[in-house]
Amino acid sequence: MGIGYSLYNIGYFKLFKMKYLTFMLMLFAATVQAQIPAKEIPADYGYIVKIGQQVPDFSTTTTDGKTVKMSDLKGKVVMLQFTASWCGVCRKEMPHIEADIWKKYKDNKNFVLYGIDLDEPVEKVQAFAKQIPVTYPLLLDPKGGIFYQFAEKNAGVTRNVIIDKTGKIVYMTRLYKEEEFQEMKSVIAGLLK
Question: Whole domain around residue 126: which residue ranges?
Answer without folding.
Answer: 43-191
